[in-house]
């Protein structure tokens, strides 16, 4: 039995030694946990003071960004409308230039025809008292109202050679 008591005492001694080692190693750990708790308390205080202002600044920044986005969208729309107006203006200028080009070509053709006809001898016009191959005055009058004036001058058809049109070549030999 003395052996059992010895073993029991030895067991208690080993338990006490293990608990002492555990406590000696736990003391620095508890000190570090205390420091961490103090840091957490300071962090919580800082967050309590700074977080509402930061959140307000973030909210205001979000509003400003949305306003800037709206302004950019409006600017893009205005730029698109300006581009459309410029495009419409360019189309109008092109149409005007095209019609001016046509008018210029027509004017040059008229001037050219006029210059060519200056050198030609004048034709004798038929007088109104020589109605050859023309309708009689009575047959033509039935197409006019009584209020309208009737001019019985004959209608002169173009020559077969010169019937090319206004812009056709008119030779000086006609």
What's the count of strands? 0
Average pLDDT, to the nearest integer? Answer: 79
Kindly, what is the distance between the CA atoms of the first and last residues, rounded to a whole number of angstroms?
A: 161 Å
Q: If you compute it from the alpha carbons, what radius of gyration comes out, rounded to the nearest whole angstrom?
A: 57 Å
Provide tags for this entry:
174 residues; mainly alpha; 2 helices; rod-shaped
Structure report:
Mean pLDDT is 79; it is low at 139-145 and 160-169. The protein is 70% helix and 0% strand. By secondary structure, it is mostly helical.
Please write out the topology.
Layout (H helix, E strand, L loop, with lengths): L1 H117 L18 H5 L33
Care to give the gist of this entry?
With 174 residues, the protein is mostly helical. The chain has two helices and no strands.
């Amino acid at each position: 039995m003395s052996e059992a008591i010895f073993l029991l005492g030895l067991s208690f001694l080993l338990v006490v030694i293990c608990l002492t080692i555990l406590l000696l190693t736990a003391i620095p750990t508890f000190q570090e946990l205390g420091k961490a708790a103090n840091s957490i308390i300071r962090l919580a205080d800082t967050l309590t003071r700074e977080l509402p202002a930061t959140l307000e600044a973030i909210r205001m920044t979000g509003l400003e960004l949305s306003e800037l986005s709206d302004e950019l969208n409006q600017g893009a729309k205005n730029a698109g409308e300006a581009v459309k107006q410029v495009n419409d203006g360019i189309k109008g200028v092109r149409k005007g230039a095209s019609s001016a080009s046509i008018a210029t070509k027509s004017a040059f053709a008229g001037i050219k025809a006029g210059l060519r006809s200056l050198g030609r001898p004048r034709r004798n016009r038929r007088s109104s008292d020589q109605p050859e191959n023309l309708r009689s005055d009575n047959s033509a009058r039935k197409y006019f109202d009584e209020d309208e004036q009737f001019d019985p001058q004959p209608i002169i058809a173009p020559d077969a050679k010169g019937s090319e049109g206004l812009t056709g070549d008119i030779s000086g030999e006609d």
